[in-house]
Amino acid sequence: MEDYAIKVENLHKSYQVSQGRSARYSALRDVLTERARLFFSRLAARQHPFAALQQETFHALRDVSFEVKHGEVTGIIGRNGAGKSTLLKILSRITEPDRGQVVLNGRVASLLEVGTGFHPELTGRENIYLSGAILGMRRREIRQRFDDIAEFAGIERHLDKPVKRYSTGMYVRLGFAVAAHLETDILLIDEVLAVGDAEFQRKCLEKVKLLITSGKSVLLVSHNLGVINSFCDQCILLEQGSVQAVGKPEKVTASYIKSLEAGHSGSIEFKGPLGNKVNLLEVLVNHMNPLANMALVSPLSAIEIKVKLNIGNTNRLRVTLSLFCDGIRIFTTHDHPGENTTTGTILSCFLIPAKVLRPATYFMAVGGLENDGLGEWFWRQDVCSFTVLEEWAEDFEAINQGLINIQARTNRSQIHDS
Amino acid sequence: MTSTMEKTHRILIAPGLSSRNYWWDLYRCRELLWVLSWRDIKVRYKQTAIGILWSLLRPLLTMSILTLVFGYFIKLPAAGNHPYHLLVLSGILPWQFFASTTSEGSNSLLDNQNLVTKVYFPRLIIPLSTCLASLADFTVALLLLLPMMAYFDFMPSWQIVFLPVFALLLLLLSFACGAWLTALNVKYRDFRYALPFVIQIGLYLSPVGYSAGIVPAHLQSWYALNPMVGIIEGFRWCLLGNSQLNAVQLLTSAAATVLLLFCGIRYFRQTERYFADLI
Fold first, then answer.
1. Cβ–Cβ < 8 Å for A190, A113
2. A7-19, pLDDT tens digit by residue?
3. What are residue A412's phi and psi, to 5 degrees?
4. Rounded to an integer, what distance in angstroms lies between the CA atom of residue B186 and that of residue B276?
5. What pTM value is reported for the model?
6. Is B114 at the interface with chain A, CB within 8 A?
7. N or C terminus: fewer CB in 10 A for chain B?
């Protein structure tokens, strides 16, 4: 028996993109008229009328090779469009490569989304059978593990409700629970760990750990470099379809971060009269770079947002920071103006107290005002976003609501009726 | 023992390889086929007030209208000593199966694109499962014949034993059309709009509301090119018994079915590996 679980050799995959528009589905009429037009124009230009259409080729993967050993966890990182999803799609046989080959030693399950094949009209119970069958489980296997699945998802009481009435959390939990109980040797995972509340994420990670210790090989695509660093034995960095680096996760993620920092400086433009005087150098949310990666933060401790700006000549500038959630501005805050003129690189630090932000994704807007609001300004919305995890629940369901969380200072006294 | 286990679970992925073990994969995924058909049946009537009764109501209403128009207004002959209702009903049952399987089959890949882009299995399972789901409707609708025959005091003849043969032919034809069209639909969404129109016309070009016997003799051979002609007349021959079985019609239907099945599956298989990229 070979010692590898996955062996990828010289994998190529390209997509045809015909002049300007993508060559996905099309109307028959367009195809026919296009062919006819081409035929006559070539005839007029004395070219061969039936020569192949000029098409641009987009190389999603070029010459990708790597190995995953038995019982090893391999992380795959890279920017959007680097080929991570295409690679997973080829490994899970959804699409075929153009060249090269892959050998998979063992039963494969791919979790490219949570709740694969769920039908909203069907109940939780029915969906367990449906999704299980779609992911390749036999009915007997599903029946044997049914109780484990329901218990793992924590939805025993809602088994006979249609899943369209489930909360997102319940839906995601059920989806992962089905997938986690697959009997496989190789697991291909795409970002599923970044879902659900923190309690459930911990459960998922524990389950993944359990799978690893039971000798399963895992290929994990993630934007969460922390997960990659703590779980993987090996990390692969993809860039523009080819393998840029392979090796120890810490090394590869570090070089990835470096390449991102190089690529991002000055790419964000500000509006307003001061807009062309300002360059955004860096944003850090609890030391994570939300410009490059999904930043997940815990609400249990204070959240630190650092904004590094390069500024031309300005007068008594305040840097402002706003957080938006679902299009609603949650709050705006600002730092203290510097001395009379501000110029050069500045670093503004904002500390949001613990347990104020509710679990959600927040979009950040960065701006600045001169002379206590009387001078010129700059402003940029949707600079980046970060996600607050669901890490705490109040003692009562009822107070676990609202846009933000403020524990008012309270004091109660008993009033004695005479 | 373990070494053979390892062998069966070794998967090689390379260009063009997925086709090699296709039929074996298809057989191994048979449980998925049942589950998907079960889902389609379950979902179809989930939010309807009368549920599966729809599959009785549809042929019953169509029968009444077509009998009214062709039997009473136009006064076409019933081609035998059976009431016109039964002539129409025995044509509607296979026709509605064909129409629903073809139209639902043709949309099946698009309706299931979340599966096509996320999991691997032989894609033929998708049109097959819609076909099986329609078969459940068809079986329920067939039961409608019993009370109708009892009401008209009509005793089916011995030829009814051949009904499964024609049902199989119908199933294959409908599946072939569904599979071909759904593969075409992935690439060219035109078929989605053309098909309802074609099916509407097909109702009149097939002997559903009338008997094939009223078609003029010199047009019969052209008429028989429609594979549904032989199948519907075959159903009538089995159920009503007193019309003659037209061998030319029947052979044309069978030949057309085989041809469509061959071409349909071939086209499906050729385009299948690009479905996930195109959808």
1. yes
2. 999 999 988 765 4
3. -130, 140
4. 10
5. 0.73
6. yes
7. N
